[in-house]
Amino acid sequence: MKSSFLLFLMLAVAISCSKDDENDEFHPPQWLIGTWDHENSEATLQTYIVSANNVILEYPDGSQLDYGTRAAQNNGYYIREEIISDSEYKYELVDNGDTGQEPDIVTFQKISNQRLKLIISLQQTNGSIYNKR
């Protein structure tokens, strides 16, 4: 009985210490932090503002979509992120509710310290280039 309890306790500790990929805060790599403007000034999605714990989309009319606030304030959303390689970062804003909404999946690829490529996003077409402000 004592050994079963000890085994159970060790298992509970191991599970609680495992990395949980569902959260309400971003953790982008250092190379992505900054303000990134779309190369095409006529683009629908003009700017990505990336901080150490958030991603904000800014549109030409000045309106913003704050992913971190959206995830933190809406219990139905969570952020799933992955560093694919030293030069690729992917995040998803997932609707955990029953709305059936597709997750917004965004993948950035570093071209240089001053340029990146948006590989995939539901917000716009693939292959868009962004320059660091």
Quick description:
17% of the residues lie in helices and 40% in strands.
Give the terminus-to-terminus CA distance: 63 Å
The helicity comes to 10-25%
Helix and strand pattern:
HEEEEHEEEEE
Rg from Cα = 18 Å
Count all strands and give the number. 9
By DSSP (H or I, 4+ residues per run), the number of helices equals 2
Determine the structural class based on helices, strands and strand pairing: alpha+beta
**Uncertain stretches:** 4-20
The average pLDDT score comes to: 78
What form results from the Cα inertia axes? globular
The fraction of residues in strands falls at 35-45%
The biggest beta sheet, please?
Answer: 9 strands, antiparallel
The spatial strand order of the largest sheet comes to 4-3-2-1-9-8-7-6-5
Write structural notes for this entry:
- With 133 residues, the protein is an alpha+beta fold.
- Helix content is 17%, strand content 40%.
- It has a 9-stranded antiparallel sheet.
- The chain is globular and about 35 Å long.
